[in-house]
Design goal:
Helices cover 56% and strands 0% of the residues. The protein has 64 residues and is mainly alpha-helical.
């Protein structure tokens, strides 16, 4: 993807998701929602982490 297309895509994402991300940040800051982490993986174990979080049939083809 060329740089101008990538920049345009990022800008569109910021415009589309900006209000939702701001609301999420507010909820996190207020303690209304919490993120629970029960395990952590090294980058070399990314496949294992994804397998744990997402059923295999939902993984992108390159990670199956």
């Amino acid at each position: 993807m060329e740089q101008s297309s990538l920049s345009r895509t990022i800008k569109e994402l910021e415009e589309d998701l900006g209000p939702q991300l701001a609301e999420l940040a507010s909820l996190l800051s207020a303690g209304d929602i919490r993120v629970l982490v029960d395990s952590a993986y090294q980058l070399a174990e990314a496949r294992r982490a994804h397998e744990r979080a997402v059923p295999e049939e939902q993984l992108p083809i390159g990670l199956r």
